[in-house]
From TrEMBL:
Assigned protein family: Belongs to the class-I pyridoxal-phosphate-dependent aminotransferase family.
CDD domains: AAT_like
Keywords: Aminotransferase, Pyridoxal phosphate, Transferase
Enzyme class: transferase
Gene Ontology biological-process entries: amino acid metabolic process
Source organism per UniProt: Sinanaerobacter chloroacetimidivorans
PROSITE patterns assigned to the protein according to its UniProt record, in alphabetical order: AA_TRANSFER_CLASS_1
Protein name: Aminotransferase
InterPro entries tied to this protein: Aminotransferase_I/II_large, AspAT/PAT-like, NHTrfase_class1_PyrdxlP-BS, PyrdxlP-dep_Trfase, PyrdxlP-dep_Trfase_major, PyrdxlP-dep_Trfase_small
EC number in record: 2.6.1.-
């Protein structure tokens, strides 16, 4: 047979899903698994979403305009203005999730061989789009020891004459780090100095804890010409399956290129866009409910992790993830062992191996990502199991 695409053959399988077959094996044997591996929130989707979809009463499900239905563009504009970010409908294109927004942005900004700088550990699902677009991600390593915060020197050190953009996720997945105002300003200044674009994935924008202020790049008017925002209803309204996102920029040239891609894929789902109008109509009622719930869960996870000997992590500041260091050499092997060989009263825990979130080979091997997407009592139990597992595992190895 003729050879298949080398781009796809070289693409790495998702690290989050690598353990799935062991989980299935464990479940087949009747083990109960607390899943902390996947970033899929479990909270209810607001009723307004379903009501809006039920109210749809057209005889045909037509293609909608490729940039999005007018009611949703208005809703997103209103949300942005309410957030203090001066964005107009014409700067917004609705996409099939934030994921499509990332892909379209990279296609519009980069040629194969171009570089863009990002901070590792980063959301590993991006790798799919990096491979497709052919631009090279250049990673600045950040560290658990200072809560994965960033600094100017290590950012500037990675910039070359091939660099096109700085790619940021704020608040961060998998780190749970919320950039400070100063860090956001610093990135903006570096982008101006080297004439770079900024792609800012802010799908967790409001999920910031302990009374922190939101730090969006959208607040900095002086970089609006070089900024592309990636947005989504998935996390803001707990509606991952709706597949509604947005790509936002005040740079008309960029939007014109992205428009070609939007037209090529014709349109985004007609009904889901209606549902998203319902989601935005709930405003900060739902957004703050979700934030408060995850802050509670963060507290439970962090308090319990602190008690486990040899585990290290800084207190996460936002989103619903964290990276923590375990007292093991190979966290992937440990997680596999937890699924296949260990149980506490028939129960065990699954998390994501940390190394999959790094571009640099060898980093993150003693780390795991925890997505705290379970109710607080289940989280407490899951961490109790993790603590017991670590104790047994380390005694066995000695
Ligand atoms: C979940 C997630 C997305 C996008 O999700 P969609 O469901 O495609 O909107 C984008 N970036 C990060 C960092 C995420 O965690």
């Amino acid at each position: 047979m003729r050879e298949l695409s080398y781009r796809m053959l070289e693409m790495k399988a998702s690290s989050v899903r690598k353990l799935t077959k062991y989980a299935e094996e464990a479940e087949a044997k009747g083990k109960k698994i607390y899943r902390l591996n996947i970033g899929q929130p479990d909270l209810h989707v607001p009723q307004e979403y379903y009501e809006r979809i039920r109210a749809f009463d057209e005889p045909t499900v037509e293609y909608m305009p490729s940039n999005g239905i007018p009611e949703l563009l208005e809703a997103v504009e209103k949300y942005y203005k309410g957030a203090g970010i001066d964005i107009d409908k014409k700067h917004i294109y609705i996409t099939t999730g934030g994921t499509e927004a990332v892909m379209f942005t990279l296609l519009a900004l980069t040629n194969p061989g171009d570089e863009f700088v990002l901070f590792e550990p980063y959301y590993s699902n991006y790798n799919t789009f990096f491979t497709i677009t052919g631009a090279t991600p250049v990673a600045v390593t950040t560290y658990a020891e200072n809560g994965f915060h960033i600094d100017r020197e290590s950012l500037e050190a990675k910039i070359t004459d091939k660099t096109k953009a700085i790619f940021i996720t704020n608040p961060g997945n998998p780190t749970g780090t919320v950039l400070t105002k100063e860090e956001v300003r610093m990135v903006a200044d570096v982008a101006k100095k080297y004439d770079l674009y900024i792609i800012s994935d802010e799908v967790y924008r409001e999920m910031v804890f302990d009374g922190r202020e939101i730090t969006s790049f959208g607040f900095l008017e002086d970089i609006h010409d070089r900024l592309v925002l990636v947005d989504s209803v998935s996390k803001r309204f707990n509606a991952c399956g709706a597949r509604i996102g947005a790509v936002i920029s005040k740079n008309q040239e960029i939007m014109d290129l992205i428009s070609k891609l939007c037209q090529g894929r014709l349109a985004v789902s007609t009904l889901e866009q209606q549902g998203a109008v319902g989601l935005y109509s709930t405003g900060y009622r739902v957004i703050h409910q979700i934030r408060d719930e995850f802050e509670k869960r963060r507290n439970v996870v962090f308090e319990n992790l602190k008690k486990i000997p040899g585990v290290f992590c800084e207190k996460p500041e936002g989103a619903f993830y964290m990276i923590c260091k375990l007292p093991v050499e190979d966290a992937g092997e440990f997680l596999k062992w937890m699924l296949l060989e260990f149980d506490d009263n028939g129960e065990t825990v699954m998390a994501a191996p940390g190394d999959g979130f790094y571009a640099t080979e060898g980093l993150g091997r003693d780390e795991i990502r925890i997505a705290y997407v379970l109710e607080t009592d289940k989280l407490a139990r899951a961490l109790q199991i993790l603590a017991k597992g670590l104790e047994v595992y380390n005694n066995k190895i000695k």
